[in-house]
Amino acid sequence: MKLWSDRHLRLSLTGLGAQVLLALLAVGVFSVNTGNNLLYLVFSLMLGLFLVSGILSRRALQGLRVAGLEEGNLFARVRGGIRLRLQDPGRGRIRGLELHLAMDDGVVEPGFLASARRTGETLVVLQARAGHRGRTRLQSLELRTRFPFGLLEKSRFIALDQSVLVLPHPRTPPARPASWRGEGHRSLTQEGSSSPEGTRPLRLGDPPARVHWKRTAQRGQPWVRTFEDERPMGLHLRLDPADWAPGRPFERELERLSGTILQARLQKRDISLDLHGPGGLREIRGHAACWRALAQAQALGTGEGGMREAPLS
User: 10 Å Cβ neighbour count for 36?
Assistant: First the structure.
C-alpha cells in the first residue's frame, strides 16, 4: 500500500507492515478499554518498532550519489554489466538497498548494496540487456529499502539522464570458403620446439600434419592442434557505409564484424578496421576502439555491400 509519493521519494507499507499495524491498532484499542498497563507497554514497544524502522531506513538512503557510470563491453541482446560507482560517505553503514536502473530500450536487473565501503566509494555491477546497438539513455536510479524489519519500504529516485554505448551483437561469422584468397585466418608457429596446447577448428593455411584426428571424428569437422609458441596473425577489416542502405542487412553485417572482433580478442590476435565515411578513410586499431566505431556507424548508401577482411602481416 503506497502511503506517500513524489518525484524523489516514495513510502509504502509492506504486507508484513500492514499486519503489524493492524495488530498495533488492536492492542491500542484493548489497552484503552481495559486500562491494562501491560497492553500499554506492548503498544509502546510496537509503536517504537515502527519509528525505529522509519528512522533507520531513512538513514540508509541518505548520503548516496552517483559518481560515475561505466558500460564496459555491453553488447546488444546479450546480458552484460554496467558498473555503477556510488559516492558513499557512510563508512561501513548498513544500507540494505535494492538498486533499480531504468534504461531506454532495455532491461536492467536489480542490484543489491548491503553496506557502505569504508573507502568512501562503492562499486555495484548491474546486469543489463539492451535491445539495439548505439547510444542508449539511462533515465533514473531508484534506491529501494525495507531495512530493517521489512515493515516499511522507502524509495529514493536519482535522475541520471546519461547515455551508454551499446555494441553490436557479436554474431558468429560464417566460415570462409577455401577459394577466397586473402581472406583466411592463419597462425605462425615460431621456430624451435613447442608442445601441444589445445585444439581449434581448421583454418585456411593450416598444414594437414596438424590435424587432430580424434577431435575431428568427435566434432564431425576438421580440427587442428595448437602449440604454446604459436603466434596468431591479426585481422584487417573494412567497412564502407556508403555501400549499405539502412536496414536489417546492414545491422547483420555489423553483427558479423562484431563477432569477428570477439573471436580475434579471444584468440589474442590484433585487429584493425578501415572505416570509410564523409570525412574520409579512418584506420582504427584495437578491439574496444573497433567495437565502438561499429556501434556508432550509420549506413549512407542504397546498396548492399559485403564484409571484407584480410590477415595482418
Answer: 14
For the stretch 59-92, pLDDT in tens is 888 888 888 888 888 999 999 999 988 888 877 7
Residue 174's Cα: distance from chain center in Å? 26
Q: Which of these CATH numbers, 2.60.40.10, 3.40.50.300, 3.40.50.1820, 3.30.750.24, describes 1-166?
A: 2.60.40.10
pLDDT tens profile 23-41: 888 988 888 888 888 888 9
Q: Are 296 and 263 in contact (CB under 8 A)?
A: no
Handedness of CA 15, 18, 22, 23 (dihedral sign): positive
Comparing 17-21, 118-122, 195-199, which segment has the lowest mean pLDDT?
A: 195-199
Nearest to 254 by CA among 283, 180, 80, 246: 246
Output the CA angle 22-23-28, nearest 5 degrees: 100
Whole-model pTM? 0.70
Q: Taking the CA atoms of the chain, what radius of gyration do you get in angstroms?
A: 29
